[in-house]
Amino acid sequence: MNCDRFQQSFAVDPSLSGKLFDLLEITFPGLSSLAECGRKLGASWEAASTPFIYFHEGIAISHVGVVEIPFYIMGKRVTVGGIHAVATRPEFRRKGYYRAVMNEVLEYCDKLYETLVLSTSQPEFYLPFGFRVVAEHIFKVQCNSTGSTDGWRQLDLTTDKDLRLLHRLLETRVPVSNVVGVVQEKAVFFVNEGSRPLYYAADLDAIACMEIEDTRLHLFDIVSTNIHPLSEILVRIPQFIEEVVIYFSPELLNTENVQAFPGVIEETVLMVRGKFAAEKEKFMLPRSARC
C-alpha cells in the first residue's frame, strides 16, 4: 500500500465522478440514478461532497465521502459532517484500504466538525473509528380523521414552477424539530427524497414527505417556514386516517397523546462521533437528512 493522500476534487478532475460511481454502483446499486436525480433538481453530489478515494492502477477501489449538513440540535444550530457512500470493491476488502481512507477522513473532519454522523445497516464497520450507535424513536398518534378538503397536491418537479417552489422552501425552512432537525440543505434531501412523491399544501405553504398505507399516514418530513399542527395536515387529507407514524421528534406539531417507540428507518441505525446534545432524547433524524 502506498502513502498517497486520498482527498480528491471533482472540480480538478472531471473524470472523477464516473470513476467513483463505477465503484459505488457495486455496493449501492441504483445510487447513480439517485445522484443524477439530484443533479437535475439543481443540487449535485459533486458540489456537496468531498471525496476521499484510494486508487489502484487508475481504478477507484475504496471511497469515503464527507458532506456538510447544517443541523439544529436541542435548539442550537450546529454544522455537522456527514459520512456517506462508504464503499470498497469486494476483491480489495480486508486489506487495509478502507481503514487508510477513513483515518484520513477523520483527520480532515476533526479540524472542521465537533460532530460526525452517518446512518448504516452495518455499525460494526464504524465502531473501531470512534462512532457509536445513538438510539432513535418513531412516534405514533391514534386519531379518527376523515379530512374535509383535498389540500395536498403532488409536486411535479419537471416543471420550473414546482422546482422553484421546492428550492425556495428548502432555502428558508425551519427545522422540523428543535431536538434534531436540518435547515438549508438540498443535496442530501434530493438524493433521499427527489425520486419520491412530495406533496404541497398552498394555504400552508408547506411540503410534506409522506406516504399513506391503508388508514395509516407515515410522515417523514415537513419543509416549511412554519411547522403547522398535525391537525392541519390531517384535515387536508380527504380519507380516513386512524394512525399517524412520525419519523422525527413531533414537539412542534402541537399534538397530544403521542407514544414513542424505539425504532429504525429503512433498517439503518444512526451513528455519531463526537458531541451530540440530543443523545438522551427521544428523536429520529428525518429520512430526508440521512447520509
List keywords for this structure.
291 residues, alpha+beta, Aminopeptidase, 2 domains, seven-stranded mixed β-sheet, 22% helix, 33% strand, globular, GNAT_dom, GNAT family N-acetyltransferase, Acyl_CoA_acyltransferase
The count of β-strands is 14
CATH topology name of the largest domain, in short, is: Aminopeptidase
Q: Nearest-angstrom radius of gyration? A: 20 Å
Helix/strand/pairing category? alpha+beta
Overall domain count: 2
Query: What is the first-to-last residue Cα distance?
Result: 29 Å
As residue ranges, the low-confidence spans are none
What portion of residues belong to β-strands? 25-35%
Q: What is the chain-wise order of helices and strands? A: HHHEEEHEEEEHEHEEEHEEE
Structure at a glance:
The chain is of the alpha+beta class and 291 residues long.
How would the blueprint of this fold be written?
Elements: H1 16-27, H2 31-41, H3 45-48, E1 49-56, E2 59-73, E3 76-88, H4 97-109, E4 115-120, E5 132-134, E6 137-145, E7 153-154, H5 160-172, E8 180-182, H6 187-193, E9 199-201, E10 206-213, E11 216-224, H7 230-234, E12 241-246, E13 259-262, E14 269-274
Parallel strand pairs: 3-4, 11-12
Antiparallel strand pairs: 1-2, 2-3, 2-8, 4-14, 5-14, 6-12, 6-13, 7-9, 9-10, 10-11
Helix pairs in contact: 2-6
InterPro entries: Acyl_CoA_acyltransferase, GNAT_dom
Pfam family, one: Acetyltransf_9
Protein name: GNAT family N-acetyltransferase
